[in-house]
Every structure is written in structure tokens, then in C-alpha cells.
Write a structure and sequence with these properties.
The protein has 2 domains: 19-242, outer membrane lipoprotein receptor (LolB), chain A (Clam); 248-313, Immunoglobulin-like (Sandwich), CATH 2.60.40. Helices cover 13% and strands 42% of the residues. It is built from 5 helices and 16 strands. The protein has helices at 2-19, 28-34, 37-41, 135-140, 177-180; strands at 48-58, 61-71, 78-84, 103-109, 112-119, 122-130, 154-161, 167-174, 193-200, 206-214, 221-231, 248-254, 260-266, 270-274, 280-285, 305-313. The chain has a 12-stranded mixed β-sheet. A hairpin with a 5-residue loop joins strand 9 (193-200) and strand 10. The radius of gyration is 24 Å and the shape is globular.
């Protein structure tokens, strides 16, 4: 009988630890699963959604970017736009301070990759050529709604459930030595805590997330917040500035091995080259002897061209 009572008391203690405060028990894994990228698309009425990410006061400055996702027509996957705001952006990023002179946008759209860099004198369009990688693989690298500050073992502090079924859940995650290196940019120190507040809608999708770092919740510093929105429509203006392939040119990249890849890009675009392996520097040359450098950053391509590629591992 004593053993049974002990087991029941232990079970009650475990339940208390799981609940961790007033409100509903929301295990962190369950929260992430219900709010996952894949789960968003299970709702057929959702055609697009976006995320605003802001780092307030980071390094005496605010840093902000915005990611938009929509269902794709041709590629059978989804399209992406990622914007780092500047004075030429059409969207009003009121929290992006100070305003930069140069706005950069990345696009993955119906099988093509572009970067558009805005300047006071106009826009520069770069066609991104993925080496040894597929468009679908590149896009899948965005297929996550997790953040580095989601790391660690989450202990639920409390939760609040509204009448409409939406929830707000508070967690605490201790920063370990293994986590410290990845989170150093957020001022995180091993032994401190990440205090996170997740605001979810009635079906469990993310609405807002706030991350603070410190020794105690009351003294923690806000280091990042994220806002999400979901729509039954596509934003027709997002990809309107992209060039089309009505007047294409062919870029052929040759490697020292003799192998090569050819790409069709819009005439007048510059090129950028993406390698699946990080830590490499790419150089392009106009000749096989690699003695005539090709300036990718400043050379629009208006005719078919063959370039010779050299990849060097960074030390």
C-alpha cells in the first residue's frame, strides 16, 4: 500500500511539473508540431503567410527582416520572398530603424532564384545559379519556423487560454555551454535562461513570439520578437518586380574537371552563384586558363556567355 501511495504521489508530482503553473499544459514539442510549416499548409484556405522578425536594440541598432511564403503554381512547392528593408521598400517596416540606404530582397519563385538589391540610382537584379543543388532543395532550407532561440529544454511556467481557444504560453529554457556559442549574438551566457512567450491562435498556429534572455524573468532583456500573419489570398505585388524570361540569355559554368551546367536567365541580370557547401569562395573567369577575372557583382549579362569557375575552401 505504501508503495502504491508513493507511486501516486510521484505521478502527481510529475503532472505538476508538466503543467508548471496555471492554465493548460502545453508541451513544447506539441506546440511546435501544431505550429509547424507543414501544418500551416494542411489548411486548404491558407494560400500565403508571412513572418516579421525583429531584433530590438541589438548591437545598438534594430535589425529587421520579413519572409513571405505562398503556394506555388508551377514548381509544385511554394514561393518565397525575404526582405531586408530599406528606403526603397514598398512595405512600411516602421520597426526597422535606422532606415538603410540599400534594401535587399531574395526571391525563390516558380523554379527561379533571384536577389534584387535596391539603390538610390535603381535596382540591381541577380539571378542566383545553384551549383550541384536543386531548386526544391534550396527552397526546403526555408521549410522551418524554428529559431535558434527555440533551443533547449523548455519548462512551462504558465499558460492562458482565451474564450476563443487561442493560447498564450510562457516557457523557460536554461542556456547550456553547448547552446552558448550559437546564442552569443543574443547576449546569452551559459547558466542564464531564455524566457519565451508564444501566442497561438485557436488552431495552434503562431501569432507572436517574444524571446528574452536573463537570470530571472523579471530582469530578462527582450532580444527578439516574431509576428505571423496568414491569408486566403496571394499578395500579387510581392513578385511583380521580378524579370521574366521573354528575352533570355544562357550562362554556362565550366569547372576544372571539364563538366559544366547551363542556365537561362533574364537578359540584363547579373549572376550570383550558390554552393550547397558553406565556407567556400567562388571566382569566375572569362577564359579556361583562369587569367581573366569576371566581375559578377558589376557585370550585367546581355549575351550568351561561358564562364570558368574556381571554388576555394576558406581557411
Amino acid at each position: 500500500m505504501k508503495r502504491l501511495v508513493s507511486i501516486l504521489l510521484l505521478f502527481a508530482l510529475l503532472c505538476a511539473l508538466v503543467s508548471c503553473g496555471p492554465g493548460a499544459s502545453v508541451p513544447f514539442f506539441t506546440l511546435q508540431t501544431r505550429a509547424s510549416f507543414e501544418q500551416v499548409w494542411t489548411d486548404p484556405t491558407i494560400l500565403s503567410f508571412s513572418e516579421d522578425i525583429t531584433y530590438p536594440g541589438r548591437d545598438d541598432d534594430s535589425y529587421h527582416y520579413w519572409i513571405y511564403y505562398e503556394r506555388a503554381d508551377k514548381s509544385g512547392n511554394y514561393n518565397i520572398c525575404e526582405k531586408i528593408p530599406g528606403v526603397l521598400d514598398s512595405k512600411d517596416f516602421s520597426s526597422a530603424l535606422p532606415v538603410k540606404d540599400r534594401a535587399v530582397s531574395f526571391y525563390a519563385h516558380e523554379g527561379d532564384l533571384y536577389v534584387v538589391s535596391g539603390k538610390a540610382v535603381g535596382k540591381e537584379v541577380y539571378a542566383i545559379l545553384p551549383l550541384f543543388d536543386l531548386y526544391s532543395d534550396f527552397v526546403r532550407s526555408y521549410q522551418t519556423l524554428t529559431h535558434p532561440l527555440d533551443a533547449g529544454q523548455h519548462y512551462q511556467l504558465r499558460a492562458k487560454v482565451s474564450a476563443d481557444g487561442s493560447k498564450t504560453v510562457w516557457y523557460r529554457s536554461q542556456i547550456t555551454l553547448a547552446m552558448e556559442a550559437n546564442l552569443a549574438g543574443y547576449g546569452a551566457v551559459a547558466g542564464q535562461y531564455i524566457f519565451s512567450r508564444y501566442m497561438l491562435d485557436e488552431v495552434g498556429r503562431y501569432q507572436k513570439i517574444f524571446y528574452s534572455v536573463g537570470e530571472t524573468e523579471s530582469e530578462a532583456t527582450l532580444v527578439c520578437y516574431r509576428e505571423f500573419s496568414y491569408s486566403s489570398e496571394r499578395d500579387v505585388e510581392i513578385f511583380a518586380e521580378l524579370p521574366d524570361l521573354s528575352d533570355p540569355v544562357t550562362v554556362t559554368l565550366r569547372f576544372p574537371s571539364g563538366n559544366g551546367e547551363s542556365y537561362r536567365i533574364p537578359s540584363g541580370a547579373r549572376i550570383g552563384i550558390d554552393l550547397p557547401k558553406a565556407g567556400r569562395t567562388i571566382e569566375c573567369y572569362r577564359n579556361a586558363g583562369m587569367t581573366e577575372p569576371f566581375d559578377m557583382n558589376n557585370t550585367p549579362i546581355t549575351d550568351d556567355i561561358t564562364l570558368y569557375v574556381k571554388a576555394t575552401d576558406n581557411k
